[in-house]
C-alpha cells in the first residue's frame, strides 16, 4: 500500500472540501446569520486546508495507483468528506449530535436524501445550502472532479479511481484520454444543472418564501442534478407549482440517463442513443411504472388521491416514479397511503434504479438486463448442454466474466440487505408513530420490520424515504445511534457499489507486500 500517495491525494480532497465550504459560508453572509453560523464553516475550512496542505508535503516514491489502492482510497475519501462535512451542523447547532450530523451529510454526499431532521424550518439557510450542495458534489463523484486536475499517467491509475467511484458494471472512456473524458462529463453535468436552475428560477416563488426563491431554486436543482432528494420546506416538493413539479420530474429522468449518451448528442450521433438496450429498458420501466400507478390510483375507490383530478393523479404518479427510479426521494404526496399495487411498483423501482453512468443509485438497468440475459443463457444450457451462448449487450458479446460479476454484485447486494435488516432488529423500536397527512390529518404506523426493511433498501439504493415509519412524511430520527451508524455505512456501500468499502475494511488491504 502506497501510504504517502494515498495521503497526498487525500490531502487534495480535503483542500477541495474546504474550498467548497466557502459557498455555504457566503450564503451565511448573504442572509446575515449569527457569527456562530459563519464560524461553523470557517473552522472546518481552515482545518481542512491546513491538514490538506500538510499532506501535500508527502513525496511518494511511486505515483501510480493500483486497483486495490484505488478502491480503498475512494472509500476512505468519502468517509473523510463526511466526517469533516458534519462539523458545520454541530457548531451551528442545526444538528447538535455528531452522529446525527454524520448521518445527514453522508446522506447528502451519497445522494441518498434520508434525513434525521424532524422540523426543517429550524435549519439555517447556510445549513440548508450545505446539505443540498453535498448532493451536487457527490452526484458525479468527488474523485472524478479531482481527476480533472491530476496529471494523467500511462498506467491506468485514473481509470482505477474512476472505476471504484462510478456507478455501473462497466466504466470506459468516451474519448481517448481519461482526464478529458471526466472533464466532458462534468461540463455536461454543469450544463444540465444550469438549464434546470434557469427553468425553476423563472417560476413563481413559494408563498411565504419570496425572499428565498433564488436559494430554494438552487436547492431543488442540486437535489435533482445529484438525484439526492433533501427537502428544504415542510412537505418536500408538495408545495411547489405543477410547472415546477413537471420540470423537476422530467430532469430527474434525464439525470438518470447515462451521461455518455449526452456526449453522442453533442457530436451529432443522437440516433445512436436509441440503439442502447439499457436506455430503452430504462424508459420502458418509467412508462410502465407511471401507467400502472396512474391506473391503480384512478380506479381504486377510497384511495388517498380520490379527490385529485386525472391530471393531478398523473402528475403525482409521474413525479414519484421519476423520483424513486432515479433514487432521488423527493415527494409530492404521501405515497405511504397509496394502494398496495402502487407501493409495490415503487418498491420494485427502488431496487432497479436508473442507468449506469448517471447520478442515480440502485442496482442499475444495465445489471438488470445482463442478469436477465445471463439467467436465460443458463436455462437454455440446462435444456440443451450443447447450446452456444450468443447474447449481446449494447452491441457487444456478453462475456462470461461480465455475467458472473453482475450475479456476484446482486448476490452481495441482497446479502448486505439481509445483514443490515438483522442489525436494525437489535434496535428496540417497534413503536407506533403518528404521521401528519398533507391535509393536516394524522394517521399511525408501526415502526417494525417493514420500516426497517424499506429503510435498508432506501439507504443501500441511495433513495432516502422508505415506507411506514420512514416514509416521505417521516424521518430517520427514531433510530438509535447504533442503527444510524449502520445505515450511514449502508448509504456509503450503496453509493460506491459495495466493493470499495469491503476492500477498505479488509485487513489484507493494509498489509505490506
What does this structure look like?
The structure is a single chain. The protein is an all-alpha fold. It has a domain at 1-166. Helices cover 59% and strands 3% of the residues. A two-stranded antiparallel ribbon has the order 1-2. The protein has a two-stranded antiparallel ribbon with strand order 3-4. Strand 3 (432-436) and strand 4 form a beta hairpin. The radius of gyration is 22 Å and the shape is globular. It starts with a helix and ends in a 9-residue tail after the last helix. Residues 151-157 have low confidence and may be disordered.
Largest sheet: 2 strands, antiparallel
- The value of Rg in angstroms is 22 Å
Distance between the termini: 8 Å
Give, in order, the helices and strands: HHHHHHHHHHHHHHHHHEEHEEHHH
Largest sheet, spatial ordering of strands: 1-2
Count of extended strands: 4
| Low-confidence spans | 151-157
Instruction: Determine the structural class based on helices, strands and strand pairing.
Output: mainly alpha
Count of alpha/pi helices:
21
The helix content, as a percent range, equals 55-70%
As a percent range, the share of strand residues is: under 5%
Q: What average pLDDT do the residues reach?
A: 85
Overall morphology:
globular
Amino acid at each position: 500500500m502506497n501510504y504517502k500517495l494515498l495521503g497526498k491525494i487525500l490531502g487534495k480532497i480535503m483542500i477541495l472540501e474546504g474550498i467548497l465550504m466557502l459557498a455555504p459560508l457566503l450564503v451565511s453572509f448573504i442572509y446575515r446569520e449569527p457569527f456562530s453560523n459563519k464560524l461553523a464553516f470557517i473552522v472546518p475550512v481552515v482545518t481542512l486546508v491546513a491538514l490538506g496542505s500538510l499532506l501535500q508535503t508527502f513525496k511518494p516514491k511511486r505515483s501510480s495507483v493500483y486497483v486495490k489502492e484505488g478502491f480503498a482510497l475512494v472509500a476512505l475519501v468519502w468517509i473523510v468528506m463526511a466526517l469533516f462535512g458534519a462539523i458545520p451542523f454541530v457548531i451551528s447547532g442545526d444538528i447538535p449530535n455528531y452522529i446525527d450530523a454524520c448521518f445527514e451529510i453522508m446522506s447528502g454526499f451519497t445522494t441518498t436524501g434520508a434525513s434525521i431532521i424532524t422540523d426543517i424550518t429550524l435549519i439555517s439557510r447556510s445549513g440548508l445550502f450545505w446539505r443540498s450542495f453535498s448532493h451536487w458534489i457527490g452526484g458525479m463523484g468527488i474523485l472524478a472532479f479531482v481527476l480533472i486536475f491530476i496529471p494523467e499517467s500511462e498506467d491506468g491509475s485514473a481509470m482505477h479511481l474512476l472505476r471504484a467511484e462510478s456507478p455501473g458494471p462497466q466504466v470506459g472512456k468516451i474519448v481517448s484520454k481519461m482526464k478529458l473524458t471526466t472533464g466532458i462529463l462534468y461540463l455536461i453535468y454543469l450544463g444540465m444543472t444550469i438549464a434546470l436552475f434557469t427553468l425553476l428560477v423563472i417560476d413563481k416563488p413559494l408563498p411565504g418564501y419570496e425572499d428565498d426563491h433564488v436559494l430554494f431554486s438552487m436547492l431543488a436543482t442540486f437535489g435533482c442534478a445529484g438525484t439526492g432528494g433533501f427537502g428544504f420546506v415542510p412537505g418536500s416538493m408538495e408545495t411547489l407549482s405543477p410547472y415546477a413539479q413537471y420540470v423537476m420530474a422530467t430532469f430527474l429522468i434525464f439525470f438518470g440517463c447515462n451521461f455518455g449518451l449526452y456526449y453522442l448528442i453533442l457530436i451529432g450521433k443522437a440516433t445512436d442513443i436509441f440503439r442502447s438496450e439499457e436506455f430503452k429498458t430504462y424508459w420502458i420501466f418509467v412508462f410502465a411504472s407511471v401507467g400502472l400507478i396512474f391506473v391503480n390510483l384512478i380506479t381504486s375507490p377510497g384511495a388517498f388521491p380520490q379527490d385529485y383530478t386525472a391530471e393531478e393523479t398523473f402528475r403525482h404518479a409521474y413525479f414519484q416514479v421519476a423520483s424513486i427510479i432515479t433514487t432521488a426521494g423527493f415527494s409530492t404526496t404521501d405515497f405511504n397511503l397509496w394502494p398496495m399495487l402502487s407501493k409495490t411498483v415503487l418498491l420494485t423501482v427502488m431496487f432497479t434504479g436508473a442507468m449506469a453512468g448517471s447520478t442515480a443509485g440502485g442496482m442499475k438497468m444495465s445489471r438488470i438486463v445482463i442478469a436477465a440475459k445471463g439467467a436465460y443463457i443458463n436455462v437454455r444450457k440446462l435444456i440443451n448442454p450443447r447450446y452456444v451462448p450468443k447474447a449481446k449487450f449494447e452491441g457487444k458479446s456478453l462475456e462470461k466474466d461480465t455475467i458472473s460479476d453482475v450475479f456476484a454484485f446482486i448476490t452481495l447486494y441482497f446479502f448486505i440487505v439481509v445483514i443490515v435488516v438483522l442489525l436494525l432488529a437489535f434496535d428496540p423500536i417497534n413503536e407506533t408513530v403518528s404521521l401528519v397527512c398533507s391535509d393536516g390529518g394524522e394517521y399511525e404506523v408501526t415502526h417494525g420490520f417493514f420500516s426497517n426493511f424499506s429503510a435498508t433498501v432506501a439507504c443501500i439504493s441511495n433513495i432516502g424515504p422508505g415506507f411506514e415509519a420512514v416514509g416521505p412524511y417521516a424521518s430517520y430520527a427514531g433510530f438509535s445511534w447504533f442503527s444510524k451508524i449502520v445505515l450511514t455505512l449502508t448509504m456509503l456501500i450503496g453509493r460506491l457499489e459495495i466493493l470499495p468499502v469491503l476492500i477498505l475494511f479488509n485487513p489484507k488491504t493494509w498489509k505490506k507486500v
